Prior knowledge:
Number of helices: 5
CATH architecture of the largest domain: Up-down Bundle
Radius of gyration: 39 Å
Largest sheet: 2 strands, antiparallel
CATH class of the largest domain: Mainly Alpha
Shape: rod-shaped
Order of helices and strands: HHHEEEEHH
Distance between the termini: 23 Å
Number of strands: 4
Helix content: over 70%
Structural class: mainly alpha
Amino acid sequence: MAASITGQGTIARAANYINSYANRTAANVTRLAGNTRFASGADNPAGMAYGQRVRAKAMGVEAAAENMQNAQTVTKIAESAYSSILDILSKAREMTSQATNPEYSDADAATASTAVQALYGRISDIEGLATFNGKSVLATEFKFEAGGDATKTVDIANSVFTKASTTATAASVAFTTPATASGKLTTIDEHIDTVTKLMATAGAWEASLGYVADFVNSKASIYQEASDNANNVNIPTETAAYVRNTIATQAGQYILAQQNQNAYSVLNLLK
């Protein structure tokens, strides 16, 4: 059979090629505009699924890094509370020591005792204000998710930080004479020793959590990089592909237009 003058078969094949390159160009635009390796799930179903899993994991580890900062905040609040309580105890000791002066009358000693007891009353106030997210730092167990999944936690047990006011009570340091004031110095020293140790524990926890926070932050950066590699478009490669497909599309359109024009010219000659 003789070939048609207009070459409709050739034109149809050329049109298919043009459509194919045009679709590729559209996919290039989608990837570049959305900064994604995948224009659709059809591009690479397994790759897209993997990329989404890594992205979710990266987001989880970033949240874990924030959790570690919150854990450090808890220890800082505890340390600050103990520091303020130590200031109270130091002032109370100073006033009690002054009250042991033989020149003090019993009335003077009683007045000093009232002031010391008032200071001790502020210990519980400070402990009540030492809260994180509405929870008492000195009486609550905190669990912080630290690994990007719920099974990896850093726990601060409620036994780590305790309240000084359970033993350092106003009644425990009350005195009525210079002689009895002298006996309360040992009691206050014991309270100071206890709070000093608690403050040291808070500092140790803060320092140790710093190492965990540093690691989780590093892990978050690594996962974010992995997520970017798995999901983000390779801009130089994709741009080159876009240019190549655009040129192929435009060239095909030009040639097809020329073919149609030639066919039209032949038909005019045959009239």
